[in-house]
Amino acid sequence: xxxxxxxxxxxxPVSMKLKSRKIVLKDGRRxxxxxxxxxxxxxxxxxxxxFVYDEEFVxxxxxxxxxxxxxxKIILKNYIDRTNSLFLVAESxxxxxxxxxxxxxxxxxxxxxxxxxxxxxxxxWQGCGLGTALLQHAVDWCxxxxxxxxxxxxxxxxxxxxxxxxxxxxxxxxxxxxxxxxQNNRYHDEISMHLLLK
Length: 198
Prior knowledge:
Layout: E1 21-24, E2 30-35, H1 41-51, H2 69-81, E3 86-92, E4 97-105, E5 114-121, H3 130-143, E6 150-156, H4 160-169, E7 172-183, E8 186-196
Helix pairs in contact: 1-2
């Protein structure tokens, strides 16, 4: 897998933090990709609540994502403080959060080399390359972390766009579990995928 051209000099050599990046997407729209800040907590809640219940392949029912502001701040602080975790947000030119990706590094000693990730974006920003930009930057960050060796995820078996993106970045399927999700009295299978970083 080749790195995106815009990833050259993307990392601070001392902190290994991803530098904020301005990216032009396939449709010409521009985003700022940056690390999350604790001060983003209220905007993150509003962003997730603004897209999550309209999405077909998100395992949440209406009203389930409703964290208290202080709880969300603690969650974001953990992502910021943990050396094997990452939370990136994509901002549009008008300052709105339109996408995010989080890499949740395992905190158990024998599993600190592993991380699971999740990604979301507003439906108006799908199909323009935002998902690829988020995922590629996150994977490249993970490859530059000495602790992380394995990324894994779970995805709806019917989510062909998601599966195609993960395969394009290098993820490999390793299992399928039937009837994991039950939404509107309908079952959906789950596919597990992984990416070896080293």
